[in-house]
From TrEMBL:
Molecular function as annotated in GO: DNA-binding transcription factor activity, RNA polymerase II-specific; RNA polymerase II cis-regulatory region sequence-specific DNA binding
Segments of skewed composition (Basic residues): 359-368
Bias (Basic and acidic residues) ranges: 7-18, 236-246
Ranges of residues in domain T-box: 38-216
Main location, first listed in the record: nucleus
Compositionally biased tracts (Polar residues): 371-380
Positions of region (Disordered): 1-29, 216-250
Protein name: T-box-containing protein TBX6L
Annotated compartments: Nucleus
Organism: Merluccius polli (Benguela hake)
BP-aspect Gene Ontology terms: cell fate specification; heart morphogenesis; pattern specification process; positive regulation of DNA-templated transcription
GO-annotated cellular components: chromatin; nucleus
Gene name of this polypeptide: TBX6L_0
Keywords: DNA-binding, Nucleus, Transcription, Transcription regulation
Length: 380
DNA sequence: TCCTCTAACACTTTTGAATCGC
DNA sequence: AGCGATTCAAAAGTGTTAGAGG
């Protein structure tokens, strides 16, 4: 499920290349009683230290590290929608020059991006707090004509994921619902179509099980496709990683959970990625979840008309996030009213970023005027 | 010439259905 | 019949590379 979000130009964003947002404390942010933690914060920090790169492809590529968060402080009996989007970190385009990233000019105009709505949304607070929330299946693409609902980004630009916790009984009502926004400085990344920094490549191979094909017995380690290249350093270092690799993964022991557990028993010294084992695959986030499919708008990523772009929001001033605001009326006036979550009247216009300059740069708390008296913001 | 992007490649992991044993 | 464990095949996902294109 995906939808358009407003202009991401956050007045509090850093417009220099080396000034990240204030770091979140131990990968956790707190707003009032709601606390959001970045579960795999250490992994993100490891990448961030080197300079995280995310590959984007025409057909969509998953993130690695992927975003994995945990929530606490929600009302167990209230429904929430959890969403993730990407905001530009600055206004520059970058290029990789030998050993470091350098500015290569002004950023491209932002494409019509989408917000990734967690497939379990909406679900009760108890459901979200039961276990960590993974955005593993969110995909990034550089295809501005993408029809699969992937998050559209520009290559060679820097972005930061944001997480939105929206109190809503259904995606139809999130527009006028209280919501809070979280982001973490360690999750900033540079988009690429091919990895530039070989240190990042090494980190990915070390932590991403899908990369094992190239680490253990892959073509590059068998000489089939090994050849000198413009990135020969990468090739040699990658081969070295292959030579250094330890116990081979349990081929033949398949069967999802049982195979995984069995494999772990049989090969306790194997290198199993944390993101595989941290989460118990038997714990699915399906219980207590409203069945969106039955309601006709599905749990899957959904497209929204491409007619609305960020640009429309560049002129939007901060207003109370009311469904009756002028901005909303203007933006939605020619939207077709079809029963799709992404095209619900007012749905696009949820002012996720219109009023960021009133909030802490990394933790934002938004409430409709009528409910603000009940909210307290504690920016960490 | 340089830089960026794409498709193909060979491999691993994930997923879901089928099968087996208790 | 029901349940859990195991097996199998297909689909999905991975990083690297050469080559195309600007």
């Amino acid at each position: 499920m995906s939808l358009l979000v407003p202009d991401h130009q956050d007045p509090h964003q850093n417009h220099t290349t080396d000034k990240p947002m204030p770091p979140s404390k131990a990968g956790t942010q707190e707003q009032g009683i709601i606390k959001l933690s970045l579960v795999n914060s250490d992994l993100w920090k490891a990448f961030h230290t080197t300079g995280t790169e995310m590959v984007i492809t025409k057909h969509g590529r998953r993130m690695f590290p992927h975003c994995n968060i945990s929530l606490s402080g929600l009302d167990p009996l209230t429904n929430y929608v959890i969403m993730m989007d990407m905001v530009p970190v600055d206004q520059f385009k970058y290029k990789w020059n030998k050993e470091e990233w350098e500015v290569a000019g002004k950023a491209e105009p932002q494409p019509p991006a989408h917000t990734y709505v967690h497939p379990d949304s909406p679900a009760m607070g108890s459901h979200w707090m039961k276990q960590s929330i993974s955005f593993l299946k969110a995909k990034l693409t550089n295809n501005t004509l993408d029809q699969h609902g992937h998050i559209i980004l520009h290559s060679m630009h820097r972005y930061s994921p944001r997480f939105h916790v929206v109190q809503a009984d259904s995606p139809y009502t999130i527009h006028w619902s209280p919501y809070q926004t979280f982001s973490f400085s360690e999750t900033h990344f540079t988009t690429v179509t091919a990895y530039q920094n070989n240190k990042i490549t090494k980190l990915k191979i070390d932590h991403n099980p899908f990369a094992k094909g190239f680490r253990e017995g892959g073509p590059h380690f068998q000489g089939k496709r090994c050849r000198p290249s413009k990135t020969s350093n990468n090739a040699e270092e990658t081969r070295q990683i292959g030579r250094d690799a330890g116990c081979k993964s349990p081929s033949g022991l398949q069967g999802s959970l049982s195979a995984l557990k069995s494999a772990k028993r049989h090969c306790p010294n194997s290198h199993f990625s944390p993101w595989l084992l941290d989460q118990d695959p038997t714990e699915s986030l399906n219980t207590d979840t409203l069945d969106l499919s039955r309601q006709g708008y599905g749990c899957e990523e959904q497209m929204v008309p491409a007619s609305m772009t960020y640009q429309a929001y560049r002129f939007a001033e901060h207003k109370t996030p009311s469904p009756y605001s002028d901005i909303d009326n203007r933006l939605c006036s020619d939207e077709p009213h079809v029963p799709d979550v992404a095209t619900v009247p007012g749905y696009h216009s949820h002012p996720f970023s219109q009023d960021m300059h009133h909030q802490h740069p990394t933790a934002h708390h938004h409430m409709p005027a009528s409910r603000q008296h009940t909210a307290s913001t504690v920016a960490t």
